[in-house]
Amino acid sequence: MTHTHSLTVRIYYEDTDFSGLVYHASYLRFMERGRTELLRDLGLGQRELLQAQGGLFFVVRAMTIDFRKPAQMDDLLFVETVVREVSGASFDLDQRVMRGGDMLVGAQVRIAAVEGGRPRRLPAQVREKFVSVASPRGA
């Protein structure tokens, strides 16, 4: 089963730069929120993982971003997140920031599991949750 997680984001003045358009780094925050809410929907609270799994947490290892169109104040955006591939100690996501049917920003993100400051294989129960929603080509 492929699962696209969607998070709604409203653009506020604080998200824009002097030109009135969304500042590029704001999209990083929006996508971080999308990833966090995907984890929450999968039953993977980051605080609980940190405490229950002996200090397991996730870090962005790599990200490729394509800025296509700007957003501006009061726009209603949707951050879509899809698990593309799951491997031993990491998983890859595709993220899109959409306004209606227009893709404004696209990103490919590699997330690594870390414990005690070192890479760690995904625990089986965590890996299974990601695999259960991964796109067919990455499952």
Q: What this model shows, in words?
A:
This protein has 139 residues and is of the alpha+beta class. It contains three helices and six strands; from the N terminus they run βααβββββα. Strands 1, 2, 3, 4, 5 and 6 form a six-stranded antiparallel β-sheet that branches.
Number of strands: 6
Shape: elongated
Helix content: 25-40%
Percentage of residues in DSSP E strands = 35-45%
Low-pLDDT stretches: none
End-to-end distance = 9 Å
Helical run tally? 3
Q: How large, in whole angstroms, is the Cα Rg?
A: 16 Å
Mean pLDDT: 93
Structural class: alpha+beta
Order of helices and strands: EHHEEEEEH
Mind describing the biggest β-sheet? 6 strands, antiparallel
In short:
By secondary structure, the protein is α+β, with helices and mostly antiparallel strands.
Which helices and strands occur, and which strands form pairs?
Elements: E1 4-10, H1 24-41, H2 46-52, E2 56-67, E3 76-86, E4 90-99, E5 102-115, E6 118-119, H3 124-133
Antiparallel strand pairs: 1-3, 2-5, 3-4, 4-5, 5-6
List keywords for this structure.
six-stranded antiparallel beta sheet, alpha+beta, elongated, about 140 residues, 3 helices
